[in-house]
Amino acid sequence: MQCSVRHLARRGVSTLKFGNSAQESDVRFFQRVLGAANVITSPQELKRYNTDWLGQYVGRSPVVLCPRTTAEVVEVMRHCNLRHLPVVPQGGNTGLAGGSVPVQDEVVLSLTRMSDVLSIDPDACVATVQAGVTLQQLDEALAPHALCVPLDLGVKATCQLGGNVSTNAGGLRVVRYGSLHGSVLGLEVVLADGTILDLNNAMRKDNTGLDLKQLFIGAEGTLGVITALSIATPPRPSSVNVAFLGVKSFDAVLATLRRARSMLGEILSAVEFEDSTCMRLVLQHLEGTQHPLAHARDCPMYMVIETASSGPHRERLDAFVRESAAAGDVLDATVASDATDMDRLWRLRYGVSQALVKAGHVFKYDVSVPQKQMYNIVDEMRSRLAADEAKGGMQHTVVGYGHVGDGNLHVNVLYDRNATSEQMARTQAALEPWLFECIRDMKGSVSAEHGIGQHKQHALAYSKSCDALRVMRSIKHLLDPSGLLNPHKMLDE
Amino acid sequence: MQCSVRHLARRGVSTLKFGNSAQESDVRFFQRVLGAANVITSPQELKRYNTDWLGQYVGRSPVVLCPRTTAEVVEVMRHCNLRHLPVVPQGGNTGLAGGSVPVQDEVVLSLTRMSDVLSIDPDACVATVQAGVTLQQLDEALAPHALCVPLDLGVKATCQLGGNVSTNAGGLRVVRYGSLHGSVLGLEVVLADGTILDLNNAMRKDNTGLDLKQLFIGAEGTLGVITALSIATPPRPSSVNVAFLGVKSFDAVLATLRRARSMLGEILSAVEFEDSTCMRLVLQHLEGTQHPLAHARDCPMYMVIETASSGPHRERLDAFVRESAAAGDVLDATVASDATDMDRLWRLRYGVSQALVKAGHVFKYDVSVPQKQMYNIVDEMRSRLAADEAKGGMQHTVVGYGHVGDGNLHVNVLYDRNATSEQMARTQAALEPWLFECIRDMKGSVSAEHGIGQHKQHALAYSKSCDALRVMRSIKHLLDPSGLLNPHKMLDE
Description:
Distance between the termini of chain A: 25 Å
Strand content of chain A: 15-25%
Radius of gyration of chain A: 23 Å
Mean pLDDT of chain A: 94
Largest sheet of chain A: 7 strands, antiparallel
Oligomer: homodimer
Shape of chain A: globular
CATH topology of the largest domain in chain A: Uridine Diphospho-n-acetylenolpyruvylglucosamine Reductase, domain 3
Number of domains of chain A: 4
Number of strands of chain A: 16
Number of helices of chain A: 18
């Protein structure tokens, strides 16, 4: 996946130095404010803060700051503003677009130590937390109140809520709970000049002026540092079931989705799909996995459907599976209700990304398109690359999977680990801008849930108009006039 | 309810003329663009566009424009911008804060003729409509697809989706579907200078840059004119039940809410409460109403709990009612499953507002506070007004009702229709700013769902900090530098 680093250079992202570099005197200031232990400067320790989750992007920040309180964030930001030091806010550093690591030698502001669950209100079903609380930590704090976080991600043990909100993280539960724009009720944000913007009233309904907090949800740390947040926490389902289905075709996937919506409605909590190539790669590369279906072992498509509710409902899921089989859409199915079995089935879907990494190098695209056209993109991509192969291009395996309930397709291109950069460039040229143009024509999104970061800057204009980008940049300028927050990324010109 | 008009004058809202007034030549221009029939200038016809839903606010616009297309809105806005004519966008004109009528002689831009349902995608469960489509019209268009609008309001036959989004309308279904910030997927907006901002990709997931559309949700027409929108439309429940409960106390209301969340979880679709005074006024003033409970006819509190799902669930609601009675929280209850009975029960809650209007004049407050403290506000308000009465103030009846599931309290003060303006001012002085200070101290909202409009400008600063207001005003200035859109309202200084 080093491809992306090479893209960066090739695409001509500015490598001109921006802002000042932190000096010894800055480090001494930070040590006075935060305590020496909370200012990281050792090259060994710095490495993980400078390197993104996928190892695609490596920055060279000389200093990582670990404040404990909002007041400390304010002092840090004031100093950086005066000294014109660019700052990268960083949560669990689990983003997939390189948004949370420095591009040059920006100061890294890690929220990790701001890890207090501030309050849980079981009447309102609202939790208020510092930004560095991990998804798992909050979920465990909510469990005794029979509440849950309306968000689930594979990296829940390390990703932090501030980062989740900054990324507008999607994941598996959007089909049930919607996006964070609906779930996040309040934010506390520190602006580039150290001003605290208190947008954290924790109420479910509040129509007093513009809803400014929404700007920071998905702003990828470019407008301010989220230091605390309130989030609606729905009742924790007492009953969960998972069905794994072998499906006849992608059309049958859509028919099954429609049936699931109609028969399962409010108890649906995930509707995922993967194609047969994904399944083959998972079974081949992930230890301990096995095909879960007894009869139909080579289906064109597979689906995972999860239901969750406050009362038992297994018979409803069974009835849905029976009806889907009777309609001819589903070729074979298995339903799990105990935790181990559910995990086993989920791993066949969760594991796709990991299996791809084990199998070779990957071009990853994370897009939103109308459901009807989702798999056409995978098929067309296969044709384009087959045509290129016929003319001497390298071999590829194209796979499609994703959150079909949300129209969110992950289409990945697997290729040989030993490919040359010329081969990679040729493949990329076969796919871009063709893919982005397709998505623009469908009024889709070139980044459904991963965001822009360093990775998708060149594609942003395919999903947003010049006028919209102009307004975004004006708002950026309004809130961060010196451009110190997370430079060279989302809205960089 | 004329009190509010008097507030306006008393509070010193500027009556200095702002902008130019439309001239004959402007009217001729509008007639050329829209057709003579779509430019209203007759005083008789103008009246209803100049007067708000509650008859509290009366503007004096000389011209109402009724475009049919976005292109026409663009032409109108360009002209108004060049001519410095202030514009009030208006949907169904059903708002409760005077936001949709002119303050002076602003041009009214009515979206009523922009009433096309543009598309319904049953796979994605998304509808795209012009802004003037009514809530009921969309609901009827969705019914054949077994989908519904994630919003329900008493005025559904006349309120328009563009207006709903501009107001961020709340209502009864927020407890189930969340706010419009989560449900609205895309917007098309025309800015003050006629620029079309196309933020309408209709995808459930889109992380490409700042989510600008969120700014316009709840902006009350001060930032741009919403001309079209896409909204997520959930599966239409096939089974609905309504329980009407007589409840022991407000603490028991909260215990019942917690039990409802835990036992009914995802099938809950409304959790409402009203106190015994509301019930008495409804039975006294609304024809055809009768007490629905056989045994406990004088309960301190009443609740309406609605459940809705994609499968039958009546036994779950019955079990919840039994358990609530066994716990001693619920004194008596009745459950309805047929439409007529459900309407009959709902009217006892829906009808509160209407009953109050029939009973006298009303000060209306629509606030969000932590559930635990909701009814304390009603009690304290009663004490304050009783103390004032003891010192010679006029008589009052204080009632509390609202969307308890969302922490949204409507606390209303009923008083004699013949009260003098001095008496009204005395009452108001007994309540304000005390109430707003209480709400500020609880980090609540001084306007939960009605918005700011002309009615709550003086209270805005109790829920939003100076810094937040400064940022809001800068964004307003960025998008509407001449301040032509809906002046004298939400963000006016």
